[in-house]
Amino acid sequence: MSGCATANVSPEASGSGPNTSPNAASAPGSPQPGEPATSPSIASALPLGLILHGPRTRKWVALTFDADMTPDMLAELRDGTVASWFDARILAILQSTRPPATVFLTGLWARTYPDVVRKLAADPRFDLANHSFDHSAFEGPCYGLPIVAGGDAAKRAEVEQAAQAIEQIDGIAPRWFRFPGGCLSASDVGLVHSLGETPVQWDVVSGDAFQPDQTVVIRDVLSRVRPGSIVAMHFIGAPNAPATATALLTIIPTLRARGFSFVTLDTLLRSGLLPG
Ligand SMILES: [Zn+2]
Fold it and tell me: 131 CA to middle of ligand 1, Å?
């Protein structure tokens, strides 16, 4: 998410409160302390076919990590402004603590870090999913993100080009799609379904973007997770998500101690249940 190099605002996790876009299905920003994870306006505007969580019947939780990459982020990498948009500590923690997890890859990120994608693809505990080609928003305004230009054809290209980039490395076409910034319309949801993928957002925003204090991330996640929750975090590290890795060191064992099991989205959503 995040990934707004020019506006210094994280589209999906800026903490700027609910998305004011009338088409937004979920707030990309991390809710303020005390704010519910899902506002009533989000729930009432939820398009059919958009998944926010799995069945509430088992103490399963899906950790999901977004690997954002806008053209501006890529430029920052190339000119040395940013050292990396991959936080290797996150992968190391996931490999050592062994929770299944799902990584939503933008096409640009997959092309930039093919070796990392190969590692993820080779590990059955990871599922790879689609986060658009270049992290452009499907509907705007969207937290300073560039907006997809070119209507439905360009939106289809965002989905398909990312899927191709992932499938070229993984060998498996992604099943799940996450809208950059959480900005979307009902027709966008239908468009993604028409391409054979299912849009999946989240019910627990970790608030890890531009949050240097891991205790805030830990608190936000642990206070919101329920059976069936989908937790949205970032895979990109500093400067946009500097505390994710450290927060995981507490979040993973604490949720296990509370009786939760980690599962991939494939496992969580296997029943095909729609949000309810
Ligand atoms: Zn994103």
Answer: 7
Q: Which residues of 227-256 are buried (b: 16+ CB within 10 A; e: fewer)?
A: bbbbbbbbbbbbbbbbbbbbbbebbbeebe
| Of residues 134, 131, 105, 98, the one with CA closest to residue 256 | 98
Question: Who contacts 143 (Cβ-Cβ below 8 Å, separation ≥6)?
Answer: 4, 7, 9, 10, 11, 12, 14, 16, 19, 28, 29, 137, 181, 183
The 3-state secondary structure of 110-131 reads HHHCHHHHHHHHHCCCEEEEEC
CA distance 70 to 47: 26
Domains of the chain listed by start with CATH number: 45-268 (3.20.20.370)
pLDDT one-digit tens code per residue, 21-68: 333 333 333 333 333 333 333 334 567 899 999 999 999 999 999 999
Say how many Å lie between the CA of residue 68 and the centre of ligand 1. 5
140 C-alpha to ligand 1 centroid (Å): 15
Closest alpha carbon to 35 in 191, 263, 219, 248: 219
The mean-pLDDT minimum among 37-41, 111-115, 191-195 falls in 37-41
Contacts of 109 (CB under 8 A, 6+ apart): 67, 68, 69, 85, 86, 131, 236
- Residue 145 CA to ligand 1 centre (angstroms): 10
Total-model pTM: 0.85
What are the C-alpha distances in Å from 52 to residues 25, 61, 157, 179, 183?
10, 12, 24, 12, 14
Does the pLDDT value for residue 274 go beyond 50?
A: no
In sequence order, which residues have a C-beta less than 8 Å from that of residue 135 and are 6 or more positions away?
1, 3, 68, 69, 70, 73, 106, 108, 145, 180
